[in-house]
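Schema walk-through. Below, the input block comes first and the output block second. Nothing else is stored per chain. Lengths vary across the set, and this one has 202 residues.
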Amino acid sequence: MCGGSGTRLWPRSRKSQPKPFLPLVGESTLFEATLDRCADGDRFAPPVIVTGAGHRAHVETQSGAHSGTRVIVEPEAKNTAAAIALAAARLDPDAIMLVLPSDHHIADVPAFRAAAHTAANLAREGWLVAFGITPTEPETGFGYILRGAPLEGGFAVNSPAIGPPWRTRCARRWPRAARTVPRSIPIRQRLRGSRVNRSITR
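--- output ---
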């Protein structure tokens, strides 16, 4: 998935060229780096890219080195779930689908590929897999996976929700920080109806 409104890193990023298409870390753009992480043909199928009409030119230019790439242009931006569903509808029903936002920086590529391989094995058993990292500080813009009992290749997820309300979550992990957070900070709604069963943590 690639696109965006270009607001988070404005004025460096703009609506016409949001952060996935910028070389923010190294010489490659975040989008190019995402494609490169999955360029191993023995492990990954050619990518299916979902983007908006306004970013199609960037996608076609920056994905030129990756043969077999398919590009799906959304008629209208409808956020993550719709983009995933659009790509899934084009795949073989038995395919293992790895969903990758193209604005992530992952420094340890071998660790990423190993985690993706483990996730694929779990997915073949019928599990929906979520990837997570250990947080180092509270952040209102992120969801939090409630890690449960250890399993082979990952951990169970205690709840279908991604974390309790932010103030409670913060109070449990960072008591001092929680006391300084204004009550006016919006509470992130819990996801409902999710069937996330296992997560890979690194």
